[in-house]
Write a structure and sequence with these properties.
The two termini are 32 Å apart. The protein has helices spanning 5-13, 16-29, 33-45, 61-68, 81-94, 107-110, 132-140, 156-165, 167-171, 183-192, and strands at 51-55, 73-78, 100-104, 117-123, 143-152, 196-202, 206-212. By secondary structure, it is of the alpha/beta class. A seven-stranded mixed β-sheet has the order 3-2-1-4-5-7-6, sandwiched between helices.
Length: 213
């Protein structure tokens, strides 16, 4: 396991209780909101026979849905051991665990050990990582066909919200923080790797973007 202090904080924050609650919501309602928009875009492009690298995959919504749509192999990298345990169990129930690989730790630190995939996704991961450019750079370098991102808009209200959200971990001396990264930097980093934006949708707080080759 390769994990920086911030990722260790994320491991504690996204614990068994949080993972179980997220899985219950998914089983009850299926993919929703920005995640559904991302999935709809990828499925419309055609994912049959492709491979997936899901960074910070949580309880595995993207993995479960795209495996059912024809993705052949999955790699999941997550700082949360609770999420990884939960997603592995769910993958076994859905019958594709034998085609999946699970890695615990900091994706940026582990990236050199990870093979490129046709599809690379980061669903609400940028907001949990201090160096957004490094994270997008490592992810884009491994995206052979598509890079899908869901992350906060860099608006003044999102930045104020992040300040408020970070008060509690600061008081507890917890290294975990919420981050708002520049949309322009994210998009230019993707472009540096030859990826062009093929879809974008912005909500009040979150935005989803898909880049393709």
């Amino acid at each position: 396991m390769t994990c920086c202090p911030h990722c260790q904080g994320a491991d504690r924050f996204f614990n068994q209780r949080v993972a179980a609650a997220d899985l219950r919501k998914y089983r009850r309602h299926g993919p929703r909101g920005m995640t559904k928009r991302l999935l709809d875009t990828l499925r419309a492009a055609g994912v049959d026979g492709m491979t997936l690298l899901d960074i910070g995959g949580g309880i595995g919504v993207i993995q479960h849905e795209l495996s059912a749509a024809g993705v052949t192999d999955v790699t999941d990298v997550d700082a949360s051991s609770a999420y990884l345990a939960m997603v592995r169990q769910e993958a076994e129930k859905r019958g594709y665990a034998a085609r999946a690989r699970y890695l615990h730790g900091d994706f940026v630190a582990l990236a050199g050990q990870i093979e490129p995939a046709d599809i690379v996704t980061l669903d609400r991961v940028l907001c949990c990582y201090p160096d957004g450019v490094a994270l997008v750079n490592a992810a884009a370098a491994r995206a052979k066909r598509f890079l899908g991102l869901i992350y906060p808009r860099d608006s003044w209200w999102a930045r104020k919200g992040a300040v408020l959200l970070n008060l509690y971990p600061r008081l507890r001396d917890d290294p975990f923080r919420t981050y708002i990264h520049s949309t322009a930097e994210v998009e230019s980093t993707a472009a540096d790797h030859g990826l062009r934006k093929v879809m974008h949708y912005g909500g009040v707080v979150w935005q989803v973007a898909v880049f393709g080759r």
